[in-house]
Write a structure and sequence with these properties.
Blueprint (H helix, E strand, L loop, with lengths): L19 H11 L1 E2 L2 E2 L10 E5 L5 H16 L4 E3 L6 H11 L3 E5 L7 E6 L5 E5 H9 L1
Parallel strand pairs: 3-4, 3-5
Antiparallel strand pairs: 1-2, 5-6, 6-7
């Protein structure tokens, strides 16, 4: 830039505030593994991902869509992975992105059961819709 005496001067700039991008970078730096990000729940872009195993199975798709709609109506940030890719790719992408919780809707859907998996601990439990809703409502 030119100063008041018409001399060329270099621009010096610094940012010392704590911005959103710095918070996200620090969270990722502290919360990841070889598979990707492990978002802390309070700052996760989405808290839950619902994963139907087979998009060709009407029972699985219906249960997954219902769970997605119900969680969103409870104001729980939820995403539905309804892509027609292999289930392994969906799981790998969910780990890479780092959703704190995965709800897996597979063959047990015919019995009214789903799997709930924690991204942080890897714990996997098979439970009903009501039990899932109870966990997320508290």
């Amino acid at each position: 830039y030119l100063d008041e005496d018409n001399n060329h001067c270099n621009i010096h700039m610094g940012c010392y505030g704590i911005g959103v991008s710095r918070i996200a970078a620090a969270a990722i730096e502290q919360n990841h593994d070889d598979n990707g990000i492990i978002w802390p729940e309070p700052i996760a872009p989405f808290r839950v991902v619902v994963l139907p195993v087979s998009m060709k199975d009407d029972t699985q798709v219906g249960m997954a869509t219902d769970m997605y709609d119900t969680l969103n109506s409870m104001e729980i940030e939820t995403i539905l992975d309804d892509r027609t890719v292999r289930f392994g790719a969906k799981m790998a992408d969910a780990d890479l992105i780092g959703y704190p919780w995965k709800i897996i809707v597979g063959k047990k859907a015919a019995d009214g059961l789903m799997d709930l998996k924690s991204r942080k601990t890897g714990e996997l439990v098979t439970i009903t819709k009501e039990e899932i809703l109870q966990r997320f409502s508290s």
